[in-house]
Amino acid sequence: MSTDKPQLTGDGQGGAEAGARKPEGSAASLRAAAPGESATPAAPAARPADRPGQMTVMTDPNRDPFESFGPPPPVQLSRVGRIRTAVARALVHEWTFAILAGLLAAVVVTWPTLRYPLHTIPQDIWDPTLQAWQMAWSGHILLTDPAQLWNSNTFYPNELSFAFSDALLGYAPAGMIGEGPVAAVLRYNIIYVLAYALVFIGGYALARQLGTGRIAGAVAGAALALAPWRLPQAGHLHVMSSGGIMLALAMLARGHGYSLRHGYRPERRHAGWALAGWLVAAWQISLGFGIGLPFAYVLLLIVLVSAVTYAVKRFRVWKEPKPFGWRLLAADAAGGLIFAAVGALLAIPYFRVSEMYPNARRSIADIELFSPPLRSFFIAPAESALWGELHTVARDALPFKPEMTLLPGFALIGLAVAGLFFSIWTVRQRALLAAGVLVSGVLSMGTAFYGGTFTYVPLFEHLPGWQGIRTPGRLVLWTTIFLALLAAGAVAAYSRRAVDFSRERVPARPGPLLRLATLLPLLAIVLEGANLTPHPIVPQQPLAMRAVDGPMLVLPSVGGWDQHVMLWSTTRFQEVTNGGSGFTPTKTDEIRAATQSFPDQTSIDYLRGIGVRNVVVMREWIVGTDLEARVDLPVDYLGITREDMENAVVYRL
């Protein structure tokens, strides 16, 4: 039997030597502590290993033995490292994914808009070409002569012609890039796709800020962007560009720390977000009053209700009001003034147009012509891939189909009805959202709801600027917003119930079918938003529009064809008498009537009298007309010259 004692150390020595050493941390190894200090272990003597290959662990005598159990010390990053970290966080942020999803969805839904963006345009070749010219003109004139913004190169010699339609002035920065009709068409197509994306992103942001989850937010955004009623409005970019409304409301709610689900939370206030919301609202109204004017009145109503509510709570001494903050108040004051200033400055030329051109004023008869009946809310447009053909008979019974097919989506309506009974919103909030659906729906009907005597007509007669809205059916946008929030509440409640159910399982996770089920409402919304929007080829610019100076007249001058002339003029922006808009000035009607017999002495004298120097006759437009028989006749006896120029005839007066 071995009598060796066990080895206590790793150096091969034991027995007496081991017993002679005292363990670390014993009283003998502690150095004397000064008053107010705690004893610390004395530093062990460092010595080399006794055998080759043996390692001796060296310890720091001042190291805290409990340091290894604490969190690691913070890493001091360099400036490059901090930038890299911030970029990495931004790339995986929820809003990054929301923006990318909105852009991707917009490209897919609007396809093939970006397939041939230089040559085709969505919906038709009439109003979209007008709006392509509008963006080009605003960008051009703001770079060259901003004082002449409202006196455009079209509708010569009428004044303030840029205010004959919603000006899309908010897109002027895009109009500063490129020149000519091809650039204008490309610009229009890109903005058209981005408008879809902004509606989705704005709807998502609004629903999330008000308290829904991500899937419910996506349902709200998709419902607003893909509502079937938007499809026939594809030729009206100012109507499609409504995403700024939802985004501004979301930013303002975020800045004021407000959500439907949690109410007012002062600790979440942020003056910067509030100011950003006002700026986005100002940009939205700069796109046009057709959509922007009701938005302005909604904002005014929200401000008044909020101010009265806060004042009542402020002066109720038995209930301490929640703080508001001077920074937020300053942001609201500055943002509100900017919003009001932008609206007022834009309104001035429109009020002047209504004074200078009596036929620009809308009447109750005009409103009656465009007022949709109740059944319009359940009729899909022809561009709807799912319902278009099925609703043909019902659609043909409508007097003005593009403005009266107002289906928000059957899937959206069903989810909103479910949201009345099963939702994350309180009963009171559901009732208010339902009231919003009813009120906005009734206003959308214009005079079709009992003549509008107590609904639309009082607004038309008493609210400044309301007379400029000729199509009440576009107020269905607000009906869709309220429906989307009701639907989002139902989807959020369903998603939360799915999570609760998953927690009851072992293991606590939802299965694939449960995960898929939470996406079914979103898939239904997307399916109903599928469309068959046509993309016709834009007429090519003739050589004469690049070579002939203004003031000029292009014949024949007809509302629709004149919009092509407007687009073609974006190369030189020469003055042209042609123009198309929501109304036709008396002077333009007079020019068209006086040139019916052109070329003759009477029409030539008239054109010279108003300053027109050149007349361009488009051969392909006059086929089968009286002008086709006169266009090749000699004109020397009239004191003018005639020149053939690539499928056009140019008369120089």
UniProtKB/TrEMBL annotation:
The chain crosses the membrane at residues 92-114, 190-207, 214-231, 237-258, 270-289, 295-312, 324-351, 406-425, 432-455, 475-493. Residues 1-73 are annotated as: Disordered. The keyword RNA-binding does not apply. Keywords: Membrane, Transmembrane, Transmembrane helix. Residues 31-47 have a biased composition (Low complexity). This is Glycosyltransferase RgtA/B/C/D-like domain-containing protein. The lineage of its organism: Bacteria, Bacillati, Actinomycetota, Actinomycetes, Micromonosporales.
